[in-house]
């Protein structure tokens, strides 16, 4: 297959981007356990001649610090997995100096089975469980992130970016248009990059933190939306770097500021009728709607380790600080962990407000859908709807990574849904990361303990 033949198979936005230009390079990428893009780049002519590529499956055992975890079940042999391009995901890398495309790849072992530890395959597995029962899960994610000043010394606190006014971005300015305009050039590049990549943005707004932005995506297929978040994280970082600042998806990058969430709106469609399973046809809520919530209330504690995957993630869960600390559900109540937004009957959905923006989008969506799936299958009834301020309710989620991992390790029903081998590798990776963090002595400890205890 020639380069031209491959381009002709790609989505229309790829052909539009390359119209009249010669494709130089193709990035063959997958998302690792942390959601980092791993893979290899090659000349376009070589890419067009190869049907598949190879990478060691150990990339899913690498921690955020670059160490390697082993779950103890098998020897660390690093067998190659086979990567096949998913041409439907092809899009531009518009920040590069030459004409470059990026393509997400499917991952199989040498016997042809999906690689169980690959996060994209974990999400595909969950979607397949829904489809086997005649259901189509639908998601609509919201992305929150911070634009911050360059921070080249990790020992120094993170600061808001300098705006066009010459002042640092201000906090407590949610929905302010002038606050967004302070770093309008970054936002402009985000829009331009997204258009070149064929990605659709439903809206951008200023959030409550200094330099904090929220970006909403349209509802759709879970795997496609996870691919888009994976791509958006890359393009947003590149847009920020063009304007002398960083974009961070860290859950809590700035002390005393709100954290960044990845809220997920969920609904389920009946494949036979095209009907939203959560709507009774006249605006009433169905048993399936309640069972989905019931499954989330029962199983979400067991998957918090996927929704809040780092030690920093738990700094976001602060009472009365725009982040839920409970698993209550309520209609149009942002103090509950599970919110039912105001909507037309056909758009009835459940919003999971627990996940942090630092989670791997494939794993965050997979974990949330897995909880709802078990609720639907096992017909789990939820607790009564919560009325009032849910911050006054009891905590419903683990408040540190170690406790979250203990709950995850004990959740055998969740393991069977996600895949047992994935569960063991994920736990091994996160425990190694947590252990590395515990070896670090913080400035707080040196300030208050060094001479006083």
From TrEMBL:
GO terms for molecular function: ATP binding; glutamine synthetase activity. Keywords: ATP-binding, Ligase, Magnesium, Nitrogen fixation, Nucleotide-binding. GO terms for biological process: glutamine biosynthetic process; polyamine catabolic process. The keyword Electron transport does not apply. Its cofactor is Mg(2+). InterPro entries: Gln_synt_N (IPR008147), Gln_synt_N_sf (IPR036651), Gln_synth/guanido_kin_cat_dom (IPR014746), Gln_synth_cat_dom (IPR008146), Gln_synth_gly_rich_site (IPR027303). Pfam families: Gln-synt_C. It comes from the Bacteria. Residues 119-453 form the GS catalytic domain. Residues 24-112 form the GS beta-grasp domain. The keyword Ligase applies. Catalyzes the ATP-dependent biosynthesis of glutamine from glutamate and ammonia. Belongs to the glutamine synthetase family. This is L-glutamine synthetase.
């Amino acid at each position: 297959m020639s380069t031209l033949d491959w381009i002709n198979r790609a989505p229309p936005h790829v052909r539009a981007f390359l119209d009249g230009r010669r494709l130089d390079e193709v990035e063959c990428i997958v998302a690792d356990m942390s959601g980092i893009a791993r893979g290899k780049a090659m000349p376009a002519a070589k890419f067009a001649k190869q049907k598949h590529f190879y990478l060691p499956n150990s990339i899913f055992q690498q921690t955020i610090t670059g160490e390697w975890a082993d779950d103890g079940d098998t020897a660390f042999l690093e067998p190659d997995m086979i990567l096949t391009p998913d041409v439907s995901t092809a899009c531009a890398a518009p920040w590069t100096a030459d004409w470059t495309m990026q393509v997400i790849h499917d991952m199989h072992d040498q016997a042809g089975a999906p690689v169980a530890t690959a996060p994209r395959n974990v999400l595909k597995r969950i979607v397949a469980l829904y489809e086997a029962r005649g259901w189509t899960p639908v998601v609509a994610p919201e992305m929150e992130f911070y634009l911050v000043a360059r921070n080249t010394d990790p020992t120094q606190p993170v600061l808001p970016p300098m705006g066009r006014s010459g002042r640092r971005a201000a906090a407590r300015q949610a929905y302010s248009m002038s606050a967004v305009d302070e770093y309008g050039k970054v936002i402009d590049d985000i829009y331009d990059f997204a258009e070149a990549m064929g990605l659709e943005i439903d809206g951008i707004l200023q959030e409550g933190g200094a330099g904090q932005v929220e970006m909403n995506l349209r509802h759709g297929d879970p795997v496609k939306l996870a691919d888009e978040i994976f791509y958006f994280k890359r393009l947003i970082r590149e847009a920020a770097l063009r304007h002398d600042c960083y974009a961070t998806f860290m859950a809590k990058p700035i002390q005393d500021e709100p954290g960044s969430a990845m809220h997920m709106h969920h609904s389920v469609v009946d494949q036979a009728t095209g009907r939203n399973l959560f709507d009774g046809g006249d605006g009433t809520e169905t048993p399936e709607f309640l069972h989905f919530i019931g499954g989330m209330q029962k199983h979400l504690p067991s998957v918090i380790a996927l929704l809040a995957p780092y030690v920093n993630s738990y700094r976001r869960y602060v009472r009365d600080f725009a982040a839920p600390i409970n698993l209550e559900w309520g209609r149009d109540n942002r103090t509950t962990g599970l919110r039912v937004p105001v909507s037309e009957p056909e758009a009835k959905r459940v919003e999971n407000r627990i996940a942090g923006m630092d989670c791997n989008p494939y794993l965050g969506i997979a974990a949330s859908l897995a909880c709802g799936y078990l609720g639907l299958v096992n017909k789990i009834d939820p607790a009564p709807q919560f009325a009032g301020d849910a911050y006054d309710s009891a905590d419903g989620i683990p408040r540190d990574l170690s406790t979250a991992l203990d709950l995850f390790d004990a959740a055998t029903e969740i393991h069977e849904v996600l895949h047992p081998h994935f569960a063991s590798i994920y736990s091994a990776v996160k425990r190694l990361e947590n252990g590395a963090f515990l070896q670090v002595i913080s400035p707080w400890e040196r300030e208050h303990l060094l001479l006083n205890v």
